[in-house]
Design a protein that fits this description.
Elements (H helix, E strand, L loop, with lengths): L27 H4 E5 L7 H8 L5 E8 L5 E9 L2 H10 L4 E2 L2 E2 L1 E4 L11 H4 L4 E3 L15 E5 L7 H8 L5 E8 L5 E9 L2 H11 L3 E2 L2 E2 L1 E4 L4
Antiparallel strand pairs: 1-3, 1-6, 2-3, 4-5, 7-9, 8-10, 8-13, 9-10, 11-12
């Protein structure tokens, strides 16, 4: 997956730094927010302007594939922790350019917690795909977050798309309290090596007409 570098507008996958602060925040980790389910037409400037509602934005990036096209997700870094926390409270599941966006802390792989909060937003998951619910096995590298799903994608379609990479324990499409899909889900493999293979092969692949974004589930 392309990295988002704090010092450059593109960083191999960012769509722009947005003219914010010249240097990255000292509170980098707590200030960075991942935004999923973005419209492909959303620019870094659109994202930055929207996220300013919660406070001072240091930079905003749209993640792109090798072809330069948006992956339907982005990263925003705030100048202050309190602004990032406010964004998670107030901007999660808001509408931006005709799509309901979803926010979560952009945590490194070794700093995942089971804090739920904004990442799951009170939504219930449907599916399971015939596997067991082993979600309490935290931080083992077996569970993937899949973003930018079509609203009509079912759990069995998601599982079928990933089973070529290894044995899938279960697949879920996340819904809101109204029963509507939020445009993202999770896939859990029995083996971490298969999850890594899925990231390598399926990040940027097309499912039900949308280019999906695949990464380790940092909230698992």
């Amino acid at each position: 997956m392309p990295a988002v570098g704090p010092g450059s507008g593109g960083g191999g996958g960012g769509g722009g730094g947005g003219g914010g602060h010249g240097s990255p925040s000292h509170e980098d980790r707590e200030c960075r927010i991942f935004i999923g389910n973005l419209s492909y037409e959303t620019s870094w400037q659109d994202l930055k302007d929207f996220m300013r509602r919660a406070g001072t934005v240091a930079r905003a990036d749209i993640l792109t594939g090798p072809d330069g096209r948006s992956k339907g997700c982005g990263i925003v870094e705030y100048a202050y922790r309190k602004d990032a926390a406010r964004a998670l409270r107030e901007l999660n599941e808001e509408d931006l350019n005709g799509r309901t966006i979803y926010l979560q802390e952009d945590r490194p792989r070794d700093d995942r917690g089971n804090d739920g909060g904004a990442a799951r937003g009170g939504g219930a998951a449907r599916g399971g795909g015939g596997g067991s619910d082993s979600g309490d096995d935290n931080g083992d590298g077996k569970q993937l977050y899949v973003g930018n799903l079509h609203y009509g994608t079912q759990w069995y379609r998601l599982k079928d798309h990933f089973k070529g990479c290894g044995d899938v324990d279960h697949a879920d499409v996340v819904e809101g309290q109204d029963g509507r899909a939020k445009g993202f889900g999770t896939v859990r493999f029995f083996h971490a090596r298969d999850a890594q293979e899925a990231i390598r092969r399926l990040d940027g692949s097309e499912l039900d007409g949308r280019k999906i974004f695949v990464r380790l589930d940092r909230q698992a």
